């Protein structure tokens, strides 16, 4: 089994107490932040907690983790910086810890919608706004828990929780037995935190812009429809994001759900022993491989791993964050040239399907170099060959050589040049070019002849022995050049035809010496990704990060054979 | 001798006509269909179409058993995948060929050993590449119980599409689910619960993968063993459901123990509800609910068991008719001769000196002209009874059994894309003691 990606934790550990009993004071600030979702780049307005000693604007979701023991007492001094949410937008807030009893004066006395607290009196128009006393916008409040019982707890807003908790005001509290590394008198030698939550961007944006509430665009969370599923504050995009490093022996896994939906963490290759839930020890330990984790719930389980270093844990409800569903067909497809005959994967499934895919009996000859491009501006690709100077392009796309119909360039390049094709000017039509030991000559005006001072020359990109490639690395509609050097790729990301170490792209390892580089927009996102052809097997960098990611990137094991010359294109 | 009231005197001509009328109606059974006695399987993941309860046709992706074994559909993708029945300690080998338009794989949560090979090193296991890729899984289950298998690639889509199945691992003792007498059963039945959003399936069928957004998923079909109600009641392997071989119509006689193997196979949780009696849940995720490993001392009783995706539960159900307050056999008062152990148990529940014998059903039955009939009503409230019914009524209840609806307690799930009744719905039949159950 492949080694799973290690989790990226955004959670700061504030306290790890394993010594004498302490009265622990934690100074938290609630403030707004913007989180950028990896994968989509969407910016989500959130509310989070940070330590008062940290810089403003550095709040995290979830907030800082607090780790204590039953010997400690906890005081949280909350500063409410939700006082500049936008024009006229402020929020009172507060903190509660379901499962622990707050002991400060006024603890858990409700605050009403008119800001009063205590008895509701006779005014039945009041509704509860907060479970407890609040820190008003710009103000402070203090919450105390004199008695801590072992287990795992959610620290969360007690004010307007339907809004504030899903906006990100939650954090984890761990309470261990005296001395630490033990909970419910069960010692552990490793601990793993798995705090699940969700984001509905529509609600977040409505709240952030004052369009949330009665009479507003979004009236409530009734249509809550999360689009991002977070683990410890980071969206997970597929099950592969949920690999958990474990150590031999007893691993304590703390499951928390700060979202509104039910998750079902599922272990693969291991069982867990249930120790406690909601900070209560279960009377009998039970073994199970799945765990129903509803909203607001916490579980503590032991996973004994003697021969494992990582255990996959995934949500068996299979709620993964938005991601590109793996396509059934490639947006840019394969083809091979076999010294005369061509075989094109017309249906884009990466396999040869006789009768469905396209076979051209004869276009070109042994020794020709192959290119493919949209010569006629029909948005499909046609084939072509370069024969040490002359080019023959299948302009009508019928796969056969038609004199007077198809295109001949009598002389562009010379023997020893490498042929490339690309849309150098962004007009939607591909033009030809050649690479000569580090120097590029591109037919910028598309007339098939070399026009000094008009056509493009890049004096120095690559070197002798490199294999030339071209593609739209940045999605601007214009193709740029690049070279493949024994598995390492150098791409002219800024399109200036010169190697700029700080701005251009290098992929250190994708393929190896002897592979034939291929490029194409495999997933149809408008940019060109890389790949290589090795004796009939195609390895494609589907996610475009220049690294082979098993499970994401794809190998097509069988299209063509050793000795074939690969091309790629959008075949009709 | 047992004295049966005149309800019992069925007109044989009427009975015959009723049988013919409902020839397609399942007779019910209490066994689990599946691949048994086989340890090497050649599966192909490929597309097919299912028929839903209201008559729709939906594309699905399923596992096809290419081995031609009894208990599956040879060479035909099926929904759900073939149920695999093996013995604890056995190893199975599954050779998977991929005819789907994307890579795929299989996961075996709870298995003790999984050795996987394949074209692609996937995130969770080795995968078979699309376009005829292959993978092989050698899997060993050392502990008995109920397990599930499903795709480990593009899981949110592929499980939704139907790549899920159940695995039954038998204990070393026949008639016991686990190595514990507390798991003894007379009959067993599988409830593999799944849910489906057909819009996603349509997008796959049309190749519009770009438009698939599983966070917008909205299931409108709910299945037991791959069928919606009322198709759950049909016989297994009926020809007109060529990709949905498994039914769900368990039946037992009074005092017999039925083992329910509940499997969460979809993407949503379902509160599975039994009428007739509580179930006693004895295991979760193929582990006996036990402090000592020998007795099911942590078993619990409920009548609605939430089954979430990936979970399995084993539960025992029995029905005695005790405490109903009337004589469901329809004995005569003087009928005090030898009673079966089951009848004695029922009698004992009436308390010392009391007897159910001769106690009639404590309601006045309306006249036939005032009744609206269920096809499951025999015409008599007594077990094994029967009586004249108006033409066209009744007929599904050949033996005069009691029908108890077993279903999702989320009543929304008793529909087939908004058409009631259907969805996650079937019946348990309590048959008279004289009926033979296969």
Outline the structure in words:
The complex is a heterodimer of chains A (572) and B (438). By secondary structure, chain A is mainly β. In chain A, 2% of the residues lie in helices and 37% in strands. Chain A has two domains: 13-178, Cupredoxins -  blue copper proteins (Immunoglobulin-like, Sandwich); 333-569, Tachylectin-2, Chain A (5 Propeller), CATH 2.115.10. In chain A, the strands form eleven sheets. In chain A, strands 13, 14, 15, 17, 19, 20, 21 and 22 form an eight-stranded mixed beta sheet that branches. In chain A, a hairpin with an 8-residue loop joins strand 31 (418-422) and strand 32. Chain B has four helices and 23 strands. The longest helix of chain B has 10 residues, at 12-21. In chain B, a hairpin with a 5-residue loop joins strand 2 and strand 3 (57-65). At the A-B interface, strand 21 and strand 42 of A face strand 7, strand 8 and helix 2 of B.
Write a concise keyword list for the protein shown above.
heterodimer, A: 572 residues, mainly beta, Immunoglobulin-like, Tachylectin-2, Chain A, four-stranded mixed β-sheet, 2 helices, 43 strands, 2% helix, disordered N terminus, B: 438 residues, seven-stranded mixed β-sheet, five-stranded mixed β-sheet, 29% strand
């Amino acid at each position: 089994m492949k080694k799973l990606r290690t989790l990226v934790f955004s959670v700061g550990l504030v306290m790890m107490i394993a010594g004498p009993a302490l009265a622990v004071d934690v100074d938290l600030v609630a403030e707004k932040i913007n989180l950028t979702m990896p994968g989509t780049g969407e910016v989500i307005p959130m509310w989070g907690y940070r330590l008062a000693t940290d810089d403003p604007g550095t709040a995290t979701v979830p907030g800082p983790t607090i780790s204590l023991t039953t010997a400690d007492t906890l005081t949280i001094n909350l500063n409410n910086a939700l006082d500049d949410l936008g024009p006229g937008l402020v929020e009172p807030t507060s903190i509660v810890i379901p499962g622990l009893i707050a002991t400060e004066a006024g603890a858990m006395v409700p605050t009403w919608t008119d800001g009063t607290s205590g008895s509701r009196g006779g005014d039945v128009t009041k509704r509860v706004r907060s479970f407890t006393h609040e820190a008003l916008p710009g103000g402070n409040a203090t919450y105390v828990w004199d008695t801590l019982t072992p287990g795992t707890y959610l620290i969360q807003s007690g004010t307007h929780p339907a809004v504030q908790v899903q906006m990100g005001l939650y954090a984890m509290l761990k309470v261990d037995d005296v001395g630490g590394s033990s909970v419910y008198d069960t010692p552990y030698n490793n601990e793993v935190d798995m705090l699940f939550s969700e984001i509905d961007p529509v609600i977040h944006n409505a709240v952030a812009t004052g369009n949330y509430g009665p009479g507003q665009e979004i009236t409530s969370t009734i249509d809550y429809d999360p689009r991002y599923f977070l683990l410890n504050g980071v969206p997970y995009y597929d099950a592969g994001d949920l690999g958990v490093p474990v150590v031999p022996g007893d691993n304590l896994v703390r499951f928390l759900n700060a979202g509104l939906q039910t998750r079902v963490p599922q272990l693969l290759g291991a069982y867990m022993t249930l120790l406690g839930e909601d900070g209560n020890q279960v009377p009998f330990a039970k073994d199970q491989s799945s765990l129903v984790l509803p909203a607001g719930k916490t579980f503590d389980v032991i996973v004994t791993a003697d021969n494992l270093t990582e255990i996959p844990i995934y949500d068996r409800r299979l709620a993964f964050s938005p991601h590109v569903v793996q396509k059934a067909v490639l947006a840019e497809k394969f083809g091979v040239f076999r010294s005369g005959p061509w075989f094109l994967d017309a249906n884009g499934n990466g396999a040869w399907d006789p009768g469905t895919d396209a076979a051209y009996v004869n276009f070109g000859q042994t020794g020709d170099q192959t290119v493919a491009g949209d010569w006629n501006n029909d948005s499909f690709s046609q084939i072509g060959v370069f024969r040490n100077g002359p080019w023959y392009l299948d302009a009508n796309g019928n796969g056969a050589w038609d004199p007077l119909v198809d295109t001949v360039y009598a002389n562009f390049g010379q023997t020893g040049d490498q042929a490339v094709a690309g849309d150098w000017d962004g007009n939607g039509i591909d033009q030809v070019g050649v690479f000569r030991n580090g120097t590029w000559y591109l037919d910028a005006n598309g007339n098939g002849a070399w026009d000094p001072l008009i056509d493009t020359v890049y004096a120095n990109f690559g070197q002798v022995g490199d294999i030339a490639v071209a593609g739209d690395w940045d999605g601007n509609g214009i193709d740029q050049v690049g070279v493949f050097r024994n598995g390492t790729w150098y791409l002219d990301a800024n399109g200036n035809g010169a190697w700029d170490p700080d701005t251009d792209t290098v992929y250190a390892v994708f393929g190896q010496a002897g592979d034939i580089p291929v490029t194409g927009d495999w997933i149809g996102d408008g940019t060109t990704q890389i790949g290589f052809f090795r004796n009939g097997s195609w390895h494609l960098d589907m996610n475009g990060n220049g690294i082979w990611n098993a499970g994401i990137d794809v190998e097509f094991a069988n299209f063509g054979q050793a000795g074939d010359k690969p091309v790629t294109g959008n075949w009709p | 001798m047992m004295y049966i009231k005149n309800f019992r005197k069925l007109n044989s001509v009427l009975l015959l006509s009723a049988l013919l009328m409902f020839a397609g109606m399942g007779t019910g059974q209490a066994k689990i269909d599946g691949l048994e006695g086989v340890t090497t399987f050649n599966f192909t993941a490929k597309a097919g179409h299912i028929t839903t309860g209201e008559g729709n046709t939906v594309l699905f992706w399923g596992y096809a058993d290419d081995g031609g074994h009894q208990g599956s559909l040879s060479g035909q993708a099926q929904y759900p995948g073939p149920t695999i029945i093996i013995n604890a300690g056995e190893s199975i080998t599954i050779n998977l060929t991929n005819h789907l338009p994307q890579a795929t794989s299989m996961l075996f949560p709870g298995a003790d050993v999984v050795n996987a090979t394949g074209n692609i090193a996937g995130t969770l296991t080795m995968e078979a590449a699309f376009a005829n890729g292959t993978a092989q899984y050698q899997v060993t289950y050392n502990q008995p119980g109920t397990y599930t298998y499903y795709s480990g690639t593009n899981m949110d889509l592929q499980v939704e599409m139907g790549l899920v199945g159940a695995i039954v691992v038998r204990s070393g003792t026949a008639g016991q689910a686990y190595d514990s007498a507390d798991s003894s059963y007379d009959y067993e039945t599988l409830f593999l619960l799944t849910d489906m959003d057909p819009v996603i399936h349509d997008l796959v069928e049309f190749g519009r993968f770009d438009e698939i957004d599983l966070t917008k998923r909205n299931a409108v079909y709910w299945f037991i063993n791959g069928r919606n109600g009322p198709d759950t009641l049909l016989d297994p392997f009926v020809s007109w459901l060529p990709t949905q071989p498994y039914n769900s119509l368990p039946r037992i006689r009074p005092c017999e123990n039925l083992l329910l193997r509940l499997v969460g196979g979809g993407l949503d949780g379902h509160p599975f509800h039994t009428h007739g009696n509580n179930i006693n849940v004895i295991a979760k995720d193929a582990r006996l609910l036990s402090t000592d490993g020998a007795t099911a001392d942590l078993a619990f009783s409920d009548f609605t068991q939430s089954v979430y995706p990936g979970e399995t539960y084993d539960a025992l159900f029995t029905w005695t008719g005790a405490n109903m307050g009337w004589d469901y056999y329809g004995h005569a008062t003087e009928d005090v001769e030898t009673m079966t152990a089951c009848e004695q148990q029922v009698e004992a529940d009436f308390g010392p000196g009391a007897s159910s014998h001769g106690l009639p059903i404590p309601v006045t039955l309306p006249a036939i002209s005032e009744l609206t009939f269920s096809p499951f009503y025999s015409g008599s409230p007594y077990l094994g009874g029967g009586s004249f019914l108006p033409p066209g009524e009744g007929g599904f209840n050949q033996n005069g059994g009691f029908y108890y609806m077993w279903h999702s307690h989320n009543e929304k799930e008793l529909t087939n894309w908004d058409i009631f009744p259907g969805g996650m719905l079937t019946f348990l039949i309590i048959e008279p003691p004289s009926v033979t159950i296969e």
